[in-house]
Every structure is written in structure tokens, then in C-alpha cells.
């Protein structure tokens, strides 16, 4: 297992490098100029040249990228072009929010979806199976933005059960923190539940039809044990893989959800940095997102290896 | 809580079957969680002495050198200026107690500072500090640079300053308010360590930023400045400005009481009224077309005043204004709204497409005309331009529209590739301030072809040096010439909105400068807000 972890981490380094390079090139090629944005409408050519030099924007693109890479190896990701705050400070203030949101969504969606999927597989052709189909279709069709605003309109404005937005740090109030995440997690997990529930049902149906299940039943093993100890373990492999892929979609979804609910996470930082063409911040967000994907997929791989002994051997 | 647990334990003992017990147990945990969370932290206003505001964006930097009127609240709370604008639009003492021009010509201006004022870092307000701040406007000004470039600031006493302007400038009092860049006074310590100005406040205003309780671009927390000079003025225990880019989220937060006040937008004004929020507004953004190429360098037709006047006659301003902004829009054919300083008493161009066609035919363009036109979606400009284009099409004038992102808009405006550009120009306190940014030859962005009219320039210069009671009539003459020469096709003044919960007051903005100061906001008398 230790070798697996080391191998995955080593493989992730080139990934982070490539993502950072592509991000740097794309944002450099985007129209607009942060120096002009900072200076406003009234500036002299001298002021413009001075500011560009101060911000390092007058260097060629490969030089700027190399300078950024050097600063990363020195432990810094540079400073925001606008606020001059260290990028790591800005993002470290926000990463916890996004991780809470994504982790809670994965857990909630996983529990609900797997439960739904199992029930609909066990009671196949029943009402629950149709429910899972409809939920799956709705999950892919309903826009996240619309769903979020709808939940706020009903549960916050009409029923007054939740705040319409905002984030309470866990160190201030653990229950308040969890409460503040309920609507954002519900919004983000709706599509995830749809995907995972259907996948679970299909996977369980396939496994429950196998001979070893019939053998277990013939031996008088309780049905609950068959489903949860034997069938689910076999069916979980594709589900775990899907959860890893889902993570990328969830990270994209945080951009919308954090905007709707006013959460101070990485998604909001991504929107802000891109709007303002704050290059160091854009780079930082890209690297942080990549690292989150790498770490979570590493966890998924470990889980996968635990579930599937063949994967451990290979 | 104890009796609830007892009930659950009894229920669990009496239920048969593992699934039911587990389900009840899970339900018990959830119920306890709900009860605890309902009593626990929330983000609402809570106590009436906490003010929660919302802004669409965070500031690029808290440094007053990067002041932006679109997000003025971030600076209003922490930085007081020598002169303040009152809610009725008049000017009143701020950090200065007395001011005025010396002699005739509006070139020498004296300022007397308030004694015993301290900044939030405990340092005193002195004439030297004010001079350093005003000199700084010239070094690294944004919008302030052009207004301060010709100014010399001298210290004439421990609390007195003299500002000498090379050219007559009747707008110096306005330049020292919080409604324009350049008037916010930073402490001496702040000027000597400018790095921290981006993330901290070092002003003499009623509040100071609590950096420990602030997350940049999420929320900014301000607490009372213990050294604020006006101890009798009402202040909240805390003011929090939450960054909320989405207006629907802002409205929802106001309905639930989490946000007390916020700038608004026409698109949600109706919803705000339906939610029984207080809605205030004033005309704020002059929108229409800037006829850039008035000498006809790239579009010869625009060099003919008859063509420019025809464009003005061909546009149905009332219809466009009403269609785009409903009851809130104000149609105008001037660079200001009727009633504002320098305005003409009535509109000059009444909608008359037939007269427009005749003028075009007289000018030799009876068969039609195509003009390359620049526009941007920012501030809804492209919608206004498209509405104008539809009217102009009816008289045979086609606007060949190019819509670009706002980040590139200023560069393209200056490029001199377009005969016409869509324009959204914020109202300013007077036409004198408007000149260098809108219609004088040195207005780099909005007059890229450096159009000059001797009457406009001469009258402008006379008005700049005239006594206060003569300025209005002289600027009206400037306006008359701008309108008669049809340098622009202004159509409507888009409104700026503010929304507030019931029980909150202070957002009735004056027409002369529709910019609410965050320090005006307070509970309505007798309310529990």
C-alpha cells in the first residue's frame, strides 16, 4: 500500500506541472490587462509601463512562468496583483470551505445514492426503481444554479429554516457550520445522487444475478448479509471509481454553489481571480484544485485496492 | 433536552426489529442536531447594533489610491475626507472645518483642518499629513491624477493647507469629498508603509477594518474607531460588508434579514418592492452614443453637424428609456439630466424621424449610411445601443456593431477605429469635472479624436474661473453648444438603486451625486432594526 501511495504521488507531480503550465499560458493569452484594470481610465504611458514592470508583466511568458515556478519551489506562490496578499494566505483561508463542501457532498450523496440504489436493486421493477430513474434524469437536467436559488426561496425565505447563504467556520460553531452547509450540499449533491444511485442499482443488479449469490442464498445466509457483506462489496468497485470522477464535476460545481450561497471557498476565488486576471491567484487556484483531485483520487485508489484484492497485487 | 432523550430511549426499547431501532436512533441524532443548530450560530443581523451590508465585489485593494466609486462603502467606513457630502447633496465639514477660495479666479483654495483629530493608529491629523496625501494623488493617482496634476499643496500652518491650481478649478471642494478619488486621508504611518494599505485601513473615519475578522473578497468587518473625533455620532458595534455577486442571493438575504442594505439594480427592483424592501434610486449613468469622429476623419458623414443632429432626431428617447428601465429611467439628450447643474431646462431633440431623414438627405446621405460602432455589454450598454440602432435603421443609418468585453473596451475606444461608441458615463457633481473626462480635447478615452470646439473650450474656461453664482449659466452655455453641435446621442439616464430593509434609513441619495455613503445608514428612529 505504501508503494501505491508513493507511486501515485510521484505520478501527480508532472500532472500538477502540466496543469499549471496550461493555465498560465491560457490566462496570459486572454484579452485584457491587469495593469490597466488597476490604473483605471486615467493613466499616462509612463505609469502604465512602471506598473507593468512592477508586476512583472513586461517579461516574456516563459520567463514569467519560470519565475513563478521558482517561487513555488521557494515555498511561495507569489502575491495577488491587486491586494498584494500572499496567494497561499488567500487560498488557505478558503480551501477548508471547499473541502468541507465537497467532502460533505461526497459523503451525503454516496450514502443516499448507494442506499437508494441498493433498495431499488433489491426491489427491482418496483416504484423505487422508477423513482431512481426519474431522479437520475432530473439530476442531469436541473441546472445547479436554479436548484440552489429554488432551495433558498423555499427553505430560507418561505420557511425560514436556513440562512440564505454565508458560512460559519467550525471553530465558531460546529453545529452552525454543518447547518450552513445543508442547502449548498443539497444543491451540489442532487446531480451526484442521480448518477451514483443509477450506477449502484445497475451494478447491484448485475452482482445479485451471479452464481455465488445464489450459492450464498442456498446456504441460508441472511439476505441482509448477502447484500451488504458480499454483493455490495463486489458492486462497489465501479461506484468508487465513479466517485473519483464525480469529484472533478463537484469541484466545478463549487464555483456556482459558492456564488449562489456566498461561501468563501476556492470556487469563489476562481471566479474572482479570472474576472480580474489576477495571474498569481489563477495559478494558485489551479494548483490547489489539482492537488485536491490528486489527493482524493489517491484515497479512491486506496479504497479500490482494499475492495479489490486483484488491484493490490497488480 | 433530558426528557427528549428519555422519550427516545423508551421508544427504542419498545420497538421490535433491528431496522426500526436503528432508524429511530438515527432520527434521534438528527433531531438533537436540529435543536442544537437552531439555537446555534447563524449569520443573521442578530443584535440591532450590527449592520450587515452587501456589495457585488470586493475592492481590488483597500488602498484609497485605488478608490472606485462602484464600491465606495469599503472606504467610506474607515476614511474621512476633509469635506463631506451630506445626504441632501450639500457640502459639510469633515476633517476640515473651514474652506474657501482666496480671491477671484478659483485658483487658490484654503483649507482649515479640525483640531484634535486622530487616525485609527493613534497618530494626529496635521496639515503635513494632508499635504502628503494630496501630493500622493499626483504620484500614483488613478482617476484623481488628472484633477491633481496641476495642483501645488503648501502647508500654511499646523492645521491649514493652501492648494494652488495652475488652471481655474471650481471643483476643488468636490475633489476633497469621498465621492471622488483623491480625498481620502491616510495616516502618516500608512503613507510610510503603503504595503499594508491594500489589506488594512489607516484612516480617521468612524470605523476601522478588523483584519482578523475579514476574509478578502468574502466579507469585511469594521469595528468602531476608538479615536474617531465625532463621539456623538451614531455608530454600529460592527459593520460587515459581505461580498455577494449575485443579486438574487442579495435579495434572498435581505428577505431573511441577513443583509440590511445593498446597492441594487433595475432587474430586481420590482422583486425588491414586492418583498417590501425600501427602494431608493436616482439617475446615475448617462447612456447613449458617443459620436467620436466629429471631424469626419474615418466616417466623413459624422463631420457634418446635420448628420449628427439627424441621429439625435431619429431616436425615440422616451420609448427606449421606458422599455429598458420602466418607470425608473429618465430620458435625456444632454450630458446631464434636466435639473442637474449645467442642464438645459428642457430637451432639445424631439423624436422626429422625418426631419432626421431630411437632414440626412440635405447632407447627401439620403441613400443611407453605415457607421462602425463599438459597444460592450458592461452596464447594459449594448442593450441601449441596440435599441438606438433599431431606431436609426428606420432613417437609413446602419450601426455596424462590434461588441467586446469591457476589459478591452477602453483600448478600443482610444484606437480611433470607430466613428461611434456606446457610452455609459457616470453622473458627476458638475460639468466642470465632466469636461476633462468627457468632452474636452484632453478627454483621452471619450474624445480620442481630440475634437475641439472654440465656443465650448472658451466658455468652459470662463466658467471655471467664474464666481459660483455665474458658473451655472456659463456651463449651461457649454451644454447648449454640446447639444446643438450634437457631439453625443445621449438617450437615457439609467438609475442607481439602493435597497434596504424596513427600519433602516440613510439611503436617499441626492441627484447631484447619487452615491450613498455607508456612514449615513442607521436604524430608522423608533425602529427595532
TrEMBL record, chain A:
Subcellular location, record wording: Cell membrane
Classification via PANTHER family: DIPEPTIDE TRANSPORT SYSTEM PERMEASE PROTEIN DPPB-RELATED
Keyword Disulfide bond tagged: no
InterPro entries linked: BPD_transp_1_N, MetI-like, MetI-like_sf
Annotated CDD domains: TM_PBP2
A GO-annotated cellular component: plasma membrane
Domain ABC transmembrane type-1 per the UniProt entry, residue ranges: 95-304
Domain of life according to the entry: Bacteria
UniProt keywords, alphabetically: Cell membrane, Membrane, Transmembrane, Transmembrane helix, Transport
Organism: Amycolatopsis pithecellobii
Similarity field: Belongs to the binding-protein-dependent transport system permease family.
PROSITE patterns: ABC_TM1 (PS50928)
Name of protein: ABC transporter permease subunit
TrEMBL record, chain B:
Domain Solute-binding protein family: 91-429
Pfam families assigned to the protein according to its UniProt record, in alphabetical order: SBP_bac_5
GO biological process, one term: peptide transport
Cellular component terms (Gene Ontology): ATP-binding cassette (ABC) transporter complex; periplasmic space
Family matches, as InterPro entries: Peptide/Ni-bd, SBP_5, SBP_5_dom
Coiled-coil blocks: none
UniProt name for this protein: ABC transporter
Top-level taxon of the source organism: Bacteria
GO molecular function: peptide transmembrane transporter activity
Amino acid at each position: 500500500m505504501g508503494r501505491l501511495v508513493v507511486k501515485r504521488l510521484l505520478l501527480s507531480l508532472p500532472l500538477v506541472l502540466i496543469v499549471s503550465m496550461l493555465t498560465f499560458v491560457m490566462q496570459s493569452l486572454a484579452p485584457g490587462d491587469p495593469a490597466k484594470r488597476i490604473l483605471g481610465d486615467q493613466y499616462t504611458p509612463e505609469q502604465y509601463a512602471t506598473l507593468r514592470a512592477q508586476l512583472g508583466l513586461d517579461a516574456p511568458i516563459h520567463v514569467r512562468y519560470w519565475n513563478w515556478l521558482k517561487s513555488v519551489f521557494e515555498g511561495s506562490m507569489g502575491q495577488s496583483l491587486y491586494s498584494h496578499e500572499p496567494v497561499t494566505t488567500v487560498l488557505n483561508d478558503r480551501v477548508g470551505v471547499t473541502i468541507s463542501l465537497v467532502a460533505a457532498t461526497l459523503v451525503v450523496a454516496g450514502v443516499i445514492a448507494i442506499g437508494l440504489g441498493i433498495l431499488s436493486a433489491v426491489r427491482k421493477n418496483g416504484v423505487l426503481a422508477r423513482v431512481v430513474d426519474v431522479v437520475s434524469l432530473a439530476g442531469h437536467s436541473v441546472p445547479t444554479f436554479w436548484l440552489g436559488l429554488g432551495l433558498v426561496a423555499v427553505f430560507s425565505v418561505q420557511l425560514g429554516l436556513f440562512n440564505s447563504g454565508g458560512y460559519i467556520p467550525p471553530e465558531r460553531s460546529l453545529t452552525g457550520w454543518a447547518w450552513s452547509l445543508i442547502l449548498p450540499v443539497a444543491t451540489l449533491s442532487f446531480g451526484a445522487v442521480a448518477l451514483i444511485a443509477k450506477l449502484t442499482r445497475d451494478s447491484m443488479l448485475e452482482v445479485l444475478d451471479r452464481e455465488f449469490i445464489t450459492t450464498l442464498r442456498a446456504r441460508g445466509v441472511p439476505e441482509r448479509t448477502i447484500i451488504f457483506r458480499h454483493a455490495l462489496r463486489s458492486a462497489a468497485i465501479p461506484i468508487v471509481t465513479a466517485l473519483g470522477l464525480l469529484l472533478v464535476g463537484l469541484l466545478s460545481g463549487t464555483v456556482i454553489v459558492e456564488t449562489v450561497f456566498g461561501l468563501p471557498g476556492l470556487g469563489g476565488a476562481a471566479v474572482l481571480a479570472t474576472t480580474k486576471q489576477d495571474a498569481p491567484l489563477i495559478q494558485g487556484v489551479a494548483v490547489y484544485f489539482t492537488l485536491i483531485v490528486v489527493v482524493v483520487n489517491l484515497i479512491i485508489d486506496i479504497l479500490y485496492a482494499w475492495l479489490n484484492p486483484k488491484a493490490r497485487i497488480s | 433536552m433530558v426528557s427528549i432523550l428519555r422519550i427516545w430511549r423508551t421508544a427504542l426499547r419498545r420497538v421490535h426489529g433491528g431496522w426500526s431501532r436503528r432508524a429511530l436512533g438515527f432520527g434521534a441524532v438528527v433531531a438533537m442536531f436540529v435543536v442544537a443548530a437552531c439555537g446555534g450560530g447563524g449569520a443573521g443581523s442578530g443584535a440591532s447594533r450590527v449592520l450587515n451590508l452587501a456589495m457585488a465585489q470586493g475592492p481590488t485593494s483597500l488602498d484609497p489610491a485605488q478608490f472606485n466609486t462602484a464600491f465606495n462603502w469599503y472606504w467610506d467606513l474607515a476614511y474621512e475626507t476633509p469635506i463631506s457630502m451630506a445626504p441632501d447633496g450639500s457640502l459639510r465639514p469633515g476633517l476640515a472645518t473651514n474652506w474657501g477660495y482666496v480671491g477671484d479666479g478659483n485658483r487658490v483654495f484654503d483649507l482649515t483642518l479640525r483640531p484634535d483629530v486622530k487616525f485609527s493608529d493613534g497618530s494626529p491629523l496635521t496639515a503635513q499629513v494632508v499635504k502628503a496625501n494630496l501630493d500622493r494623488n499626483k504620484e500614483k493617482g488613478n482617476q484623481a491624477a488628472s484633477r491633481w496634476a496641476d495642483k501645488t499643496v503648501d502647508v500654511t500652518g499646523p492645521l491649514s493647507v493652501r492648494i494652488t491650481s495652475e488652471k481655474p478649478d471650481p471643483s476643488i471642494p468636490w475633489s476633497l469629498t469621498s465621492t471622488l478619488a483623491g480625498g481620502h486621508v491616510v495616516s502618516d504611518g500608512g503613507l510610510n508603509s503603503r504595503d499594508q494599505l491594500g489589506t488594512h485601513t489607516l484612516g480617521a473615519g468612524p470605523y476601522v477594518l478588523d483584519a482578523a475578522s475579514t476574509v478578502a473578497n468574502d466579507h469585511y468587518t469594521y469595528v468602531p474607531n476608538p479615536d474617531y473625533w465625532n463621539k456623538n455620532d451614531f455608530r454600529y458595534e460592527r459593520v460587515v460588508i459581505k461580498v455577494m455577486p449575485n443579486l438574487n442571493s442579495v435579495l434572498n438575504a435581505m428577505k431573511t434579514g441577513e443583509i440590511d442594505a445593498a446597492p441594487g439594480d433595475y432587474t430586481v427592483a420590482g422583486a425588491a418592492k414586492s418583498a417590501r424592501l425600501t427602494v431608493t434610486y436616482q439617475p446615475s449613468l448617462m447612456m447613449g452614443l458617443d459620436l467620436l469622429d466629429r471631424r469626419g476623419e474615418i466616417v466623413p458623414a459624422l463631420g457634418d453637424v446635420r448628420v449628427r443632429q439627424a441621429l439625435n432626431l431619429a431616436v425615440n428617447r422616451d420609448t427606449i428609456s421606458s422599455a429598458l428601465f420602466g418607470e425608473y429611467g429618465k430620458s435625456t439628450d444632454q450630458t446631464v439630466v434636466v435639473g442637474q447643474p449645467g442642464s438645459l431646462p428642457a430637451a432639445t431633440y424631439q423624436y422626429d424621424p422625418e426631419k432626421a431623414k431630411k437632414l440626412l438627405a440635405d447632407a447627401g446621405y439620403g441613400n443611407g449610411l453605415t457607421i462602425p460602432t463599438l459597444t460592450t455589454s458592461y452596464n447594459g450598454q449594448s442593450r441601449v445601443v441596440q435599441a438606438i440602432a433599431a431606431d436609426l435603421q428606420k432613417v437609413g443609418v446602419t450601426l455596424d456593431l462590434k461588441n467586446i468585453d469591457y476589459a478591452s473596451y477602453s483600448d478600443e475606444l482610444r484606437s480611433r477605429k470607430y466613428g461611434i461608441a456606446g457610452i455609459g458615463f457616470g453622473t458627476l457633481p458638475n460639468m466642470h469635472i465632466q469636461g476633462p473626462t468627457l468632452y474636452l480635447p484632453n478627454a483621452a478615452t471619450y474624445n480620442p479624436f481630440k475634437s475641439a470646439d472654440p465656443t465650448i473650450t472658451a466658455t468652459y474656461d470662463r466658467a471655471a474661473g467664474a464666481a459660483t453664482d455665474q458658473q451655472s449659466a456659463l456651463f449651461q452655455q457649454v451644454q447648449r453648444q454640446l447639444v446643438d453641435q450634437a457631439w453625443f446621442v445621449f438617450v437615457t439616464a439609467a438609475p442607481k438603486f439602493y435597497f434596504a430593509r424596513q427600519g433602516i434609513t440613510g439611503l436617499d441619495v441626492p441627484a447631484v451625486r447619487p452615491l450613498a455613503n455607508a456612514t449615513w445608514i442607521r436604524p430608522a428612529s423608533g425602529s427595532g432594526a
